[in-house]
Specification:
With 438 residues, the chain is an alpha+beta fold. It folds into three domains: 151 residues, FAD/NAD(P)-binding domain (3-Layer(bba) Sandwich), CATH 3.50.50; 106 residues, protoporphyrinogen ix oxidase, domain 3 (Orthogonal Bundle); 102 residues, Alpha-Beta Complex (Polyamine Oxidase, Chain A, domain 2). It is 33% helix and 22% strand. It contains 14 helices and 22 strands. Helix 1 runs parallel beside helix 10 and helix 5 runs antiparallel to helix 6. It starts with 15 loop residues before the first strand and ends with a helix.
Length: 438
Amino acid sequence: MIQPSMPSASQSPARIIVIGAGVAGLIVAREVARAGMPVTVFEASDRIGGQLASVRIAGIDVDSAAESFATRGGAVAALATELGLAHDLVRPRESPAWLIGRGGRARPLPAASLLGIPADPRAPDVVRAIGPVAAWRARLDAVLPLRRPESYPSVGSLVRRRMGSGVLRQLVAPVVRGVYSMAPDALPLDRASPGMRDALREAGSLGAAVARLRAAGPAGSQVAGLRGGMHLLATTLAEAAESAGAQIVLRARVARADEAGVWLAGGDRVRGHVVSAAAASAGAAVRERTITVATAAVDAAGLHSAPRGTGALIADGVRGMSARALTHSTAKWQWLADNLPAHRHIVRLSYDETPDDPEQTVAADLRAITGVPIDGLLQLDVRTWTRTLQAQPVAAGLDAVGEAASVTGLASIVPAARATAERLSANVRAARSGGAEG
């Protein structure tokens, strides 16, 4: 990664320019503004929040993009608490997600697992899910020597070697496809589970490493959300940034950036130290993924029992199902169910490609996944999101945070952005201290 060449303390820039008003950009804007530095955020679209967005469905504002965050590290919860949202932090209901395999058979995801990798292949729910032969193969993980954890570049390579193709195909692949929109062999291990290699070294087997990582995590679910929706994190953060003195300018596209500032699409030149928080500002993405999220309101008595728990992950190639994942939002989030009539449900289905006939496809998929008769949808919103997995490096002299720095997922984005903001703020404080002493 190119390290930005910040000015010395005696040459602190007159302004910080942030490109992009997603969470990473807003964190930098808030914290640097609090340190006393003038900050301007240029956002090309007409809204703040980036991958945190809302849509009004059945009279309620619900998330149309990210609807939860990974609890690892505690950084997101800490930020929410600072912003006054501590009482709105919520855990999903204790109900298992389900897996639907290639044959269309549905079964609950084994409880003690990580990315679908079981901690104990002998567990009854694992044997039921993958069958006795695959379970016996997976048990070899406990006795196979584990000498070089660094030799596994991807989740797929690790699981295949340690536990076999049965676990990989029937458990891990549907989970990875549903969560990351890619095959396990394409998912870097360090991205999927940053602590896995150390856990492998300490535990000596994959199953024991999974158990160790689960035990080391916070009690309860490995994900959490906000009462009212994750989009509230972005709006509250923007309000805090503006209260600290940051200026947020919408519909302002940056055409070019260098170490001295930016050129806006209209030709204006704005000088300052640039922090890129938008992957597009660094140029074309090296790797990206696109996902279509269909959010629907439906009245169906058969959904009251949450027949697929909080949702379902669907293996690639299941006949009669186009979706890759279902989230039964009113079964997952109590706050959402409390704000709707008992007969009404909110569901989210995700697709690798936008369906030609979204309403018909969503209704058909919902019937096939849940086994519940669905006469029609009360309301439907369909949006396509593009996530940058790897961005082009920013120009020398610039900082990058969020997807512009090839960092994805709030649990990683928040601490990385805060670290950059702290370094910039320290530079401001040092400049003032030097000036006062001189």
